[in-house]
Specification:
alpha/beta; Aspartate Aminotransferase, domain 2; 2 domains; 13 helices; seven-stranded mixed β-sheet; Aspartate Aminotransferase, domain 1; five-stranded mixed β-sheet
């Protein structure tokens, strides 16, 4: 029995670089477009669905088959040139003028910028809320019930590593449905997924990844991924993607498909070191406060126990001495790549978010959310723990 998807038995699906595909007949081409537009179900059997490189290729299909195996409950996938293009396309495809979005605060700086600055230009109201506080979430849902379309959750949040209960927020959305039903629950699962957190198991409708991070894993690929458990939702997203053009290239599909074959191994190894480093930082005299999923307390610990299977490799901490000391720390690092944005790669990175990734967020909002000038975010890679330990202790002084 042949187990590969390639007609010639290739173990790795070859990259399909063609931009266009010839149909068997005019009637066959019409059928392909009818299916693309959702006018007819996908034909059974060996029907060839391919039309044009912007719509779909065998390379994309191969990647999508691999992606849905990562998340329990996922049935459909789409890939984009970046994580932000995945977020933008999804939001644009699913919202209209007059809709409301509730979203996690704090959140990745560019995500916040899109919601805060650009959604209002389309007539979409976007409200930043503390999604870790269920009383705040419930009040916001009730206040916006008639127009609420999406609740966008980033958990753990970036760069303050706080957890939001996907299940309890989904239950609140179901408790207060709007005219068109409950709000869609979209989860940015970049920090812990797909190895330590599975949002579909807790009530999410859509999962989004920056594939640039752990899925890509080697800091050599920009990409974004959207996963759904609904064909209807994915059809809406893919139609908007096909029309507006933010497509992942076939070569990038092949590269990402190769990378995700090792994502469980990479995340496991990186997390082993991160746990030791988090414990090291938690007891250090120059660390004011530590944010790490494995060391949370109270309600945050309860969410972690219910929703996560591991803490991941992203650590944030407040260093004593303000921005000056935070800058000095990242500048002194030698093994860890200081002043390097992004995360989730095999190399360890360190940044000061308030003066980099979150600089575009108004200072008042940054500070209220806890993104202080002395906050340092670490992304732990695969370097030996002893080297990372020595580097961090030397930089801390």
């Amino acid at each position: 029995m042949k187990h590969t998807q390639d007609p010639f038995g290739a173990v790795v699906t070859p990259t399909t670089n063609t931009t266009t595909f010839q149909a068997d007949s005019a009637a066959d081409l019409k059928l392909r477009f009818q299916w693309l537009l959702g006018l007819v179900p996908e034909p059974d059997g060996d029907h060839n669905p391919f039309i044009y490189g912007r719509f779909d290729t065998p390379s994309h299909r191969s990647l999508y088959r691999a992606l849905v195996t990562l998340e329990p409950g996922a049935t459909h996938a789409a890939a984009f040139p970046s994580g932000m293009s995945a977020i933008y396309t999804t939001i644009k495809a699913l919202t209209k003028q007059g809709d409301t979005i509730l979203y996690t605060n704090p959140i990745y700086g560019c995500t916040d910028d899109y919601f805060r600055q650009y959604c209002p230009r389309d007539g979409v109201k976007a409200v930043a809320i503390d999604t870790t506080n269920l009383n705040v979430v419930e009040a916001a849902i009730i206040e916006n019930q008639q127009t609420l379309r999406i609740i966008f959750i980033e958990t753990p949040s970036n760069p303050i590593i706080k957890l939001s209960s996907i299940r309890k927020i989904a239950d609140l959305a179901a408790k207060y449905p709007g005219p068109n039903g409950p709000a869609l629950i979209i989860v940015d699962n970049t920090f812990l997924g797909p190895f330590f957190q599975h949002p579909f198991e807790h009530g999410a409708d859509i999962i989004i990844y920056s594939a640039t991070k752990f899925l890509g894993g080697f800091s050599s690929l920009l990409g974004g991924v959207v996963l759904t458990k609904s064909e209807m939702l994915m059809r809406v997203i893919r139609l908007f993607q096909n029309t507006t053009g933010p497509v992942f290239t076939p070569a990038a599909c092949t590269k990402l498909e190769e990378s995700i074959q090792t994502v469980d191994y990479r995340m496991s190894v990186e997390t082993e070191s991160a746990i030791q480093i988090a414990n090291l930082l938690a007891s250090h005299a120059n660390v004011e406060f530590l944010y790490y999923p494995g060391l949370l307390t109270g309600e945050q610990a309860e969410i972690y126990a219910a929703q996560c299977t591991g803490p991941g490799s992203i650590i944030s901490f407040l260093i004593k001495g303000g921005e000056t000391q935070a800058f000095a720390f990242v500048d002194k690092l030698e093994i860890i790549l200081g002043n390097t944005v992004s995360l989730g790669g095999v190399h360890s990175y360190a940044i000061v978010p308030a003066s980099s990734t979150h600089l575009g967020v108004p200072e008042k909002i940054r500070l209220a959310a806890g993104v202080k000038p002395n906050l340092v975010r670490l992304s732990i890679g695969k370097e030996p723990f002893k080297l990372l330990e020595k580097d961090i202790l030397s930089a801390l002084g």
